[in-house]
Amino acid sequence: MQKLTLEQAVSKLKAGEVIAYPTEAVFGLGCDPFNPQAVEKLLHVKQRPLEKGVILIASEIEQILPLVKLQNEPWQARVEASWPGPVTWVLPVKNELPEWITGGRDSVAVRVSSHPLVGALCNEFAGPLISTSANLSGGEPARSCQEIDQIFSGHVDCLDGALGELSQPTQIFEAVSGRRLR
């Protein structure tokens, strides 16, 4: 495993690689959501089935607006009031998104993060990233680059940095109903 600088992390993302990075509570695994080979690598490394879908993470609402129905929707104010911040919302997709992002659903989980390193990463990458907890499916998520190295046997490089202040992964809500999913 290599500890990455921000610039190295962005280069790896643009090259179709999977990286680990700190988020609000745990380290996340991320890649370019529109690169099917990168997403396939991420799902393989994590041992996660395609049907589960993934979360997209962004630094600002504008990065996700082309993808989801949010503007002029009854739930817009509720969603925007929680962002940037540690709340993930399942929103209806605007146009059809690839199955590897949605898990075959007509919705996608998205978060506009207030974590400074996530913000910098999405800004430098110039778009949203996949963000799924850095663990093998069902296992405990990593909380450091050292744990990333142990879990993934050196196959995932890590953007080192401090975690946010949450002790548990972010809450997930369904925008249309307001129902809490996690």
UniProtKB/TrEMBL annotation:
Alphabetical list of InterPro entries matching this protein: DHBP_synth_RibB-like_a/b_dom (IPR017945), Sua5-like_dom (IPR006070), TC-AMP_synthase (IPR023535), TC-AMP_synthase_SUA5 (IPR050156)
Gene3D superfamilies per UniProt: DHBP synthase
Keyword annotations from UniProtKB, A to Z: ATP-binding, Cytoplasm, Nucleotide-binding, Nucleotidyltransferase, Transferase, tRNA processing
Top-level enzyme category: transferase
Keyword Manganese attributed: no
GO molecular function: ATP binding; double-stranded RNA binding; L-threonylcarbamoyladenylate synthase; tRNA binding
Domain YrdC-like, residue spans: 3-182
Segment forming the signal sequence: none
Record flagged with keyword Ribonucleoprotein: no
Annotated GO biological process: regulation of translational fidelity; tRNA threonylcarbamoyladenosine modification
Catalytic activity: L-threonine + hydrogencarbonate + ATP = L-threonylcarbamoyladenylate + diphosphate + H2O
One Pfam short name: Sua5_yciO_yrdC
Family listed: Belongs to the SUA5 family. TsaC subfamily.
Described function: Required for the formation of a threonylcarbamoyl group on adenosine at position 37 (t(6)A37) in tRNAs that read codons beginning with adenine. Catalyzes the conversion of L-threonine, HCO(3)(-)/CO(2) and ATP to give threonylcarbamoyl-AMP (TC-AMP) as the acyladenylate intermediate, with the release of diphosphate.
UniProt xrefs under NCBIfam families: L-threonylcarbamoyladenylate synthase
Protein name: Threonylcarbamoyl-AMP synthase
Lineage: Bacteria, Pseudomonadati, Pseudomonadota, Gammaproteobacteria, Thiotrichales
